[in-house]
């Protein structure tokens, strides 16, 4: 009996391996590292490929370590698209190794240096959160579209047509962001969040931003940072600070309490979706939905 079970398992195993091997799939499988990136790639390729996010919704990409199952998925995919700019901070070596054997697109690679924000001269001090400037995200996707066509020239017409449609929606989103932030800026408000994810947002839409933690969630906020931020909030008469869905609100709670002690009560609003989408089929389950939902949350808490 044991032998039959073992044999059945072996056959089932062989069958499933065969089914999921890159050669025998009905459609190519593209693995994109983050949920935000997977959403964009799905829009661009439409039903030409099966697009799978490596990291599930709600996961912090700065801290994400690939599991054995993930390595299987990455090596088994027909193409892997990753964000780059050290967003997937713990996966850098994996991408270096994968480059020898796998089709790999680094989606941010072609962005001109002068469009990138940095906190220092080191390579890893580059700010990876480019998706909060809708036009910059569009620019990175534009070069990703070209790389996808290089990889599958037969997809060109379909991919260009999908991209043109999607791009119009991105341009509408950018207009919406300008409209919302314009109202807040004229009333002197600034955006205070759990980590420094909004620098590109600040640059693009001319709103001042502050984060309690650094660019990556790997760094812990210090007491000095807390004191400086409290003073900033009081000086600027800020009404609310924003939690983030991938980060514990513990440090932000300390900020709220510190403001209360100085007789400046503030609201802990949010959470904002910063480094991941919300679950599929929810309001913030797509990139466009996420940006809109963030803008609405920010506006409601800070509106004059
Ligand atoms: Zn981040």
Summarize the structure.
With 304 residues, this protein is of the alpha/beta class.
Would you tell me the structural class of the helices and strands?
A: alpha/beta
Largest sheet descriptor: 4 strands, parallel
Q: Uncertain runs with pLDDT below 50, 5 residues or more?
A: 4-19
Shape category:
globular
| Estimated share of beta-strand residues | 5-15%
Q: What is the spatial order of strands in the main beta sheet?
A: 2-1-3-4
Top-tier CATH class of the largest domain:
Alpha Beta
For the termini, the CA-CA separation is: 74 Å
What order do the helices and strands follow?
HEHEHEHEHHEHEHEHEH
Let me know the number of strands. 8
Mean pLDDT: 90
* Radius of gyration over all CA atoms, rounded: 22 Å
Under CATH, the topology of the largest domain can be stated as: Rossmann fold
Can you name the CATH architecture of the largest domain? Answer: 3-Layer(aba) Sandwich
Helical percentage: 40-55%
**Distinct helical segment count:** 10
**CATH homologous superfamily name of the largest domain?**
Nitrogenase molybdenum iron protein domain
Bound ligands, each once? zinc ion
Count of domain modules: 2
């Amino acid at each position: 009996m044991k032998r039959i079970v073992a044999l059945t398992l072996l056959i089932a195993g062989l069958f499933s391996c065969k089914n999921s091997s890159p050669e025998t799939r009905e459609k190519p499988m593209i693995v994109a590292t983050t949920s935000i990136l997977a959403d964009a790639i799905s829009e661009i390729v439409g039903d030409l490929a099966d697009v799978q996010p490596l990291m599930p919704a709600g996961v912090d990409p700065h801290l994400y370590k690939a599991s054995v199952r993930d390595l299987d998925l990455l090596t088994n995919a027909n193409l892997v698209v990753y964000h780059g700019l050290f967003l997937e901070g713990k996966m850098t070596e994996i991408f270096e190794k994968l480059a020898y054997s796998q089709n790999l697109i680094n989606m941010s690679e072609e962005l001109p240096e002068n469009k990138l924000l940095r906190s220092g001269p080191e390579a890893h001090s580059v700010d990876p959160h480019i998706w909060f400037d809708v036009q910059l995200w569009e620019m990175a996707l534009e070069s990703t579209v070209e790389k996808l066509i290089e990889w599958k020239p037969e997809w060109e017409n379909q991919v260009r047509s999908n991209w043109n449609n999607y791009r119009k929606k991105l341009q509408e989103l950018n207009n919406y962001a300008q409209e919302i932030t314009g109202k807040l800026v004229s009333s002197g408000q600034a955006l205070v969040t759990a980590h420094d994810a909004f620098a590109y947002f600040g640059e693009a839409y001319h709103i001042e931003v502050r984060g309690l933690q650094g660019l990556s969630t790997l760094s812990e906020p210090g007491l000095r940072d807390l004191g400086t931020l409290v003073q900033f909030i009081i000086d600027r008469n800020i009404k609310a600070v924003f939690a983030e869905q991938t980060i514990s609100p513990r440090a932000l709670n300390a900020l709220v309490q510190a403001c209360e002690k100085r007789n400046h009560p503030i609201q802990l609003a949010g959470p904002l979706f910063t480094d991941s989408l919300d679950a599929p089929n929810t309001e913030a389950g797509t990139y466009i939905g996420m940006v809109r939902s963030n803008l609405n949350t920010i506006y409601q808490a800070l509106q004059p």
